[in-house]
Each structure stands twice: as C-alpha cells, then as structure tokens.
C-alpha cells in the first residue's frame, strides 16, 4: 500500500474545494503540533510529503494526498486547540474540521492523534464526542513515544485505553507510535490496509 508513491493533490480551505467522493478516505486529526503531518510522512516513508514544523499551526488547510496504487485518499488536517493564530482563522479551521469530520460519506476512519506524554485533553474528548455522535469510525494513535519525558508512557497508554473503553461505541485498539523511531508504524499500516479490504 505505501510502497507505491503517495502524491500531494491539493490544499482545501473550504468544503467546496474537496475532490469528489470517489475514494476511501482516512483523516489525521489532533491538537496542533501533535505530529499529524510527521506521521503521514513516516507512514509514506518520506520526510517531505506533508509539511511539518516546530511551530504549532503549520498545517492550515485540509491537505489531500492520494495513493497511486490504491483507491486511498489521505487527509492531513489543521490542528485544533491552537490559540495563537488570529481568531477568525481559528474559527474558520474549526468549522472546516467539524464539517469535514462529520459530513463526509467517504471518510472511512479518522485517526485521532494524542501526545503520548499527555494523554487526551478536553478538546480531544470533544472531537471524539462529535465523532461518536456522527457515528464516524476513529482510532486513537498516541504520538512521540520516543520523547525523553515519555518514561510514564505505559501509564498514559493504560489511561487512554481505559478512557476509550468507556466510550459509547467500540473502537479499534489505541496504538503507540513514534514517527521519529518508527515504533507502531507497521501496525498502523496494517490497520489502514485492512480498511481498504473491508
Ligand atoms: P500542525 O500542522 O501545526 O497542527 O502540527 P502537526 O500535528 O502536523 O505536527 P508536525 O507533524 O508538524 O510535528 C510537530 C513537531 O513535532 C515537529 O517539530 C516534529 O518534528 C515533531 N514530531 C512529530 N512526530 C514526532 C515523533 O514521533 N517524535 C519526535 N521526537 N518528534 C516528533
Ligand atoms: Mg501539520
């Protein structure tokens, strides 16, 4: 699946910019700076497909990528929870994220990325509430497992799994990943490949 090129198609600032609903879509959502764009790059085995940055708020559009070998579309989303950008911008992103996540028939699964040093925050819970209400499938992926402060990572994993187990709908297992060190990427690729077969 990820052996063949994945190419950048376009950036969308409004729903009307999105391509037609002719492919299976997966989206990467999460707080600003959690590592969404880095994870897409790591999955695709490149460092330059999706733009990443140390500064939160890097991704400002719905960036669309497509596989050249499979009917798969990957959507890199702007982050939520970033207060430093001008308010109208934050509002526009929030609305776009909300509309895309809850109103896209071809959206097969959302990967909700959460920092493995912190676990779920209030805005992550809000997004999961929204996805559950809209009956959209999602899987929680903990990121940055390699970070020095992650010595309590097992605690965060356990706490996150417990939080997901209590949710109203069933969800695939929480995965622990590092885009830097490659941890968990094989498992995530397998999950995505399974989605395409189902
Ligand atoms: P926005 O687009 O701003 O919402 O951010 P994002 O979620 O796309 O995060 P991005 O991929 O740009 O990564 C943010 C920062 O975290 C960058 O400096 C990355 O190098 C770093 N980062 C991402 N993943 C990892 C990881 O697995 N390990 C480590 N150590 N750093 C990571
Ligand atoms: Mg990004």
UniProtKB/TrEMBL annotation:
Keywords: Cell cycle, Cell division, GTP-binding, Magnesium, Metal-binding, Nucleotide-binding, Septation. The keyword Transferase does not apply. Gene3D superfamilies: P-loop containing nucleotide triphosphate hydrolases. GO terms for molecular function: GTP binding; metal ion binding. Residues 22-198 form the EngB-type G domain. Necessary for normal cell division and for the maintenance of normal septation. This is Probable GTP-binding protein EngB. It comes from Devosia crocina.
